[in-house]
Amino acid sequence: MTGEKMKFIDEYRDASAVRTYADKIAEITTRPWNIMEICGGQTHAIMRFGIDQLLPPEITLIHGPGCPVCVTPVEILDKAIEIAGRDDVIFCSFGDMLRVPGSRKDLLTVKAEGGDIRTVYSPMDTLKIAIESPDKQVVFFAVGFETTAPSTAATILQAHRRKLTNLSMLVAHVLVIPAMEAILSSPDNRVQGFLAAGHVCTVTGYAVYEKLVDKYEIPIVVTGFEPLDLAQGIYLCVRQLEKGASLVENQYARAVKRDGNQPALQTVNRVFEETDRRWRGIGLIPQSGLKLRGEFAEFDAENRFEPANQVTHESTGCISGQILQGAKKPYECPAFGKRCTPEHPLGATMVSSEGACAAYYLYRKP
Amino acid sequence: MCIAVPGNIKTITGDDPLTRVGRVDFGGLLREINLALVPEVGVNDWVLVHAGFAIGVIDEQEAQKVFEDLRSITESGADDRGENEVH
C-alpha cells in the first residue's frame, strides 16, 4: 500500500525461510501426493510466488473451487444483469464480478449501455449510497464465502435498523465446507490432503473440520496466504500424509481460533439461513448457499424486482467446471491463452485474478 | 475475494456495537473500518480487515510460532514433534 514495512506480511515473505520448508518437504516426501488448496487467493499466491515450482515433482497442487466470482451461477448473474439495467437502480458490486460472462452479456456491458453500476469496496458503501440517493433503488450483489457473509449480514442489520426501504441485496453467498465435502464424496476424488482457506476459518474456526477428517480420513491444514504460510501448510500436510495421519492442524494460528469468530457467526445466523445452491461449473451442492431469513425478506432483491428466470447459456469451449474441480489444469484447455484471455474471458475462471486460469495466464504463460 | 489485510487500530469511535468504527493503519494508510464483528477489540490491537469490516483479531504471540517452528526444523532436522496437531 505504501513503502512502509507491513507487519504480519513482510516477515512471511522471507525467501530463505520458504526455501527451508521446500527443502524439508523434498526430504520427507517418498511418493506422489495430491493436495488441494481450497481458496483462490491461495492459488493466486502460489502462482505469484512460484511456490509450486519449489516443490518436489511428487507433490501436485490441485486448485480448488474457492473463487466466489468463478462459482456464482450464471442464472444469478443473469438476474444481476437484468436488475442492473433498470433505470431506477444503482447496482453495486465488487469489481471482480463486472466482467464475468452471463448468458448474453456481462455487467460491464450494462454499464456501457448506461446502467448505473458502481464498484464498491465494502457492503457498507451501499448503505451510504442508499441514504444519499433516496429516489433510487440501491442493490448490492452479495457474493463471497464465509469470510464475506458477516459483512453483508452486518450491513443488512444496519439497513434494518434504519428502516431503509431503498436498499436490497442479490444474495449469492456460498459456503466452502459443504463444497469440500462434495469433493471428498465424489467417486472421482483425487484429493488426498487439504489446505483449508485461512480467512474462511478466521470466521468459522476449525472445529467444523474435525468431523470431515474423521469421516474421510484426510489431513486438513488451516493455512494462511503468505509464501511462508503456504510452504509451512504444505509441509504439515505432507508430513501427515507420509505418516498416514488424518488430523486438523492449524498453520494460521495468528488469525484462526478453534471456534472462529462467534460474533461474526451469530451475525450471519441472525440474517441468513442455509439453502441448496448451484455452483457454476460444478452443479448443485446441498446446503451450500445462504439466503435471507424471512424476517429480512424485504431486503431480498429477488423479491423486490422479481427478475425473470431466463434460459441460461454457457460458453461452449470453456472447461472451467473441470478446472474448478481440479480435474484439469488451465493449460490443458485448447482455448487457454488463445480464444480465452483475461481481456476476453470465455469463463469465470479467467476473469477473477483468483481464478486458476487467470493466475496461470498471469504467472505461467509460456 | 477472501483476502484480508492486517491493520493496527489507532482510534475507536462510537459505543453502539453495530456502528463502532476504528481508524485502522495499514502500513501508513489510514482507513475507517467497521468493528461490529470484533466487539472485544481495543486501541492498538491488530485486526484482519476484509470488505471494510474487521473479521478477526491477530494473536501476536501466535504470530511468532511460525518462526519458532522454522527454527526447530532447521535445528533438529527431522521434525516429529507434532505439536501443531490440534485434533
Secondary-structure blueprint:
The complex is a heterodimer of chains A (366) and B (87).
Chain A: H1 15-28, E1 33-39, H2 40-49, H3 51-54, E2 59-66, H4 68-71, H5 74-84, E3 89-93, H6 107-112, E4 116-119, H7 123-132, E5 137-142, H8 149-161, E6 167-171, H9 176-185, E7 193-197, H10 198-204, H11 210-216, E8 220-223, H12 227-243, E9 248-250, H13 262-271, E10 272-279, E11 283-292, H14 301-305, H15 320-324, H16 356-364
Parallel strand pairs in A: 1-2, 1-7, 3-4, 3-5, 5-6, 7-8, 8-9
Antiparallel strand pairs in A: 10-11
Helix pairs in contact in A: 1-12, 2-16, 8-13
Chain B: E1 5-13, E2 21-26, E3 29-34, E4 46-50, E5 53-57, H1 60-63, H2 65-76
Antiparallel strand pairs in B: 1-2, 1-4, 2-3, 4-5
Form type of chain B: elongated
Which range does the strand content of chain A fall in?
15-25%
- Biggest sheet statistics of chain A: 5 strands, parallel
Strand order of the largest sheet of chain B: 3-2-1-4-5
Strand segment count of chain B? 5
Assign the CATH class of the largest domain in chain A: Alpha Beta
Q: Over all CA atoms, what is the radius of gyration of chain B?
A: 17 Å
Structure described in brief:
The complex is a heterodimer of chains A (about 375) and B (about 90). By secondary structure, chain A is α/β, with parallel strands linked by helices.
Overview of the structural elements:
The complex is a heterodimer of chains A (about 375) and B (about 90). Chain A is an alpha/beta fold and about 375 residues long. Chain A folds into three domains: about 120 residues, Rossmann fold; about 150 residues, HypD, alpha/beta domain 2 (Rossmann fold, 3-Layer(aba) Sandwich), CATH 3.40.50.11740; about 45 residues, no CATH class. Chain A contains 16 helices and eleven strands. In chain A, helix 1 packs parallel to helix 12, helix 2 runs parallel beside helix 16 and helix 8 crosses helix 13. The two termini of chain A are about 30 Å apart. With about 90 residues, chain B is of the alpha+beta class. Chain B has a single domain, classed as SH3 type barrels (Roll), CATH 2.30.30. Chain B has two helices and five strands, in the order E-E-E-E-E-H-H. In chain B, a hairpin with a 2-residue loop joins strand 4 and strand 5. The longest helix of chain B has 12 residues. The radius of gyration of chain B is 17 Å and the shape is elongated. About 5% of the residues of chain B have low confidence. The interface between A and B is large, with 75 and 44 residues.
